[in-house]
């Protein structure tokens, strides 16, 4: 007796269906993971999204809630499981899992807890998607990108940290507010550590190629009447302030993750400030990851843009690298 | 001494700037409000989004988190305040504020708490956006749409309840899973109460105009071997299940709100199952709001599609109307 489906529809293809071609996995269904997921879904970047977490009910509930919105989306397959087999054949795996900063806590404090979590997560990702690109978001992102690189055995072009992509976005938003111009027309790069010691490259800050520091030579110094240095401070404090007000941050980081995933999946070769191995650059001697402007595409992080930094700026990068290396050398991997 | 801004940019327009033309306000920055906000932002339908709530820190934190993502968005103005003046001149005001269902609690139980909250919210909306369209999402949505209509003094075409737009989306998702077809090609309408007594109109369920009930005459009855009635049951239980697993629902309702707002702002005149005054239709005698297929556009809810319902289906609608009227007549407005 034919089912309703059989009476309605005739299947006419003998071969196996092709399967998903642009799969994105998000590891961790907390606020950052879900904001990343909804941004990736609404930007229609993937044909399949997989979610993984250890909290089974929360995971199932989040997946179900997204699936119920399927009518309004163009991502036909949304799957979720505690078991990593659900992540197989991903092009990009976004890792948001781990402890997050409590009010007033610095990102570096989270490190050992998150290393232990990564010892479970990273080998599982590699097992099911041996050719994927791993995008690390969990904090402290620069150290954890190093950890993910070591634990995965992947070449360095396939392990990327979200780094200062968000810091730079915050800077450009604040710059846009000051100048009454859309952030996408305000250019400014924050590099180095995603955290308290990030480095604003004042010489590059421009609109339409016009350097703001040339118009205002005191920019970035304490002598600046307009106190542009406060813009950078607001970026550094930005996350702490949002955490204090709403308990966590989610939307901005979620959108910045989708921005990176888009460049990768669509092979755009756009330049983003993301965290990569900077040993040998800018005087950095140790095996550390810091954010510099990088070209992203479907192979991953293929090129690094060489910045012309002032001596003070290079010193700051070297100092960040030393701070990070001090923490990294104590880790048990 | 010219500022950096003045050196960089010459303002060349003498007149006052025009101001926002497609402003959307979201009242309530809980999970549903924020999922609605992010969906509206990522679908780029507004040129200004305003958020209102009574919890000032949470409100400020959420607004800041969205603003920090400004680089990735095409909605240049995101504002927030406890004071409703921030909502002035909105085209659509989405009301998500109020108590939500706890695990196992029905939507009707929330009613008196939410009526009291509406007595503050609705007059404030009207004061600053006297020509707007109000979209009520808070539960029990059918009763609260009636309440908003009464408290606002608006004509009925400008007070709309999100109603069974989400129920129908969930139904079409589940139908799509059964048939292995995208939800947007699976057609099915759930009408009446957004809640336990919603009515699936089996005669309308189709793919490409082919009626499933004509292929399977038992569809929707207890005798149906394929138990399609179960699909409706999963819709009714859907919200409870997600709440039990993740604590609340957000993504699907947020996407469905953006779907409705899009139709209104873009004057699409699409037909959606939303909650409107149904007195005089389908045997309903009382002044109640229930979901029926309605045409939405930039004037609001201008037309209702008249369904040919079976006697049992009409009876269910009348019964829902009586249940809702039983609750409404006890309210102090």
Describe this structure in a few short sentences.
2 copies of one chain form a homodimer. The first copy, chain A, has 10 helices and 14 strands.
Identify the notable features of this structure and list them briefly.
alpha/beta, L-lactate dehydrogenase (chain B), homodimer, 6-stranded parallel sheet, oxidoreductase (chain B), 333 residues, 10 helices
Strand/helix succession of chain A: HEHEHEEHEHEHEEEEEHHHEEEH
The tally of strands of chain A reads 14
This entry's quaternary arrangement is homodimer
Largest sheet of chain A: 6 strands, parallel
On the 0 to 100 scale, the average pLDDT of chain A is 95
Give the percentage of residues in beta strands of chain A: 15-25%
Number of helices of chain A: 10
Shape of chain A: globular
Binding site for NAD(+) (chain A): 28-33, 53, 114, 137-139
InterPro entries (chain A): L-lactate/malate_DH (IPR001557), L-lactate_DH (IPR011304), L-lactate_DH_AS (IPR018177), Lactate/malate_DH_C (IPR022383), Lactate/malate_DH_N (IPR001236), Lactate_DH/Glyco_Ohase_4_C (IPR015955), NAD(P)-bd_dom_sf (IPR036291)
Subunit structure (chain A): Homotetramer.
Pathway (chain A): Fermentation; pyruvate fermentation to lactate; (S)-lactate from pyruvate: step 1/1
Describe the overall structure.
With 333 residues, chain A is of the alpha/beta class. In chain A, 39% of the residues lie in helices and 18% in strands. The first copy, chain A, is built from 10 helices and 14 strands. The first copy, chain A, has helices spanning 4-8, 31-42, 56-67, 111-128, 141-152, 165-179, 212-215, 229-246, 251-265, 311-328; strands at 23-27, 48-52, 77-80, 92-95, 133-136, 159-161, 186-187, 190-192, 198-200, 206-207, 210-211, 270-277, 289-297, 300-304. In chain A, the strands form 4 sheets. Chain A has a 6-stranded parallel beta sheet with strand order 3-2-1-4-5-6, with helices on both faces. In chain A, strand 5, helix 5 and strand 6 form a beta-alpha-beta unit. In chain A, helix 2 packs across helix 9 (251-265). At the A-B interface, helix 1, helix 2, helix 3, helix 6 and helix 8 of A face helix 1, helix 2, helix 3, helix 6 and helix 8 of B. Chain B: Residues 23-161 form the Lactate/malate dehydrogenase N-terminal domain. Chain B: Keywords: Cytoplasm, NAD, Oxidoreductase. Chain B: Pathway: Fermentation; pyruvate fermentation to lactate; (S)-lactate from pyruvate: step 1/1.
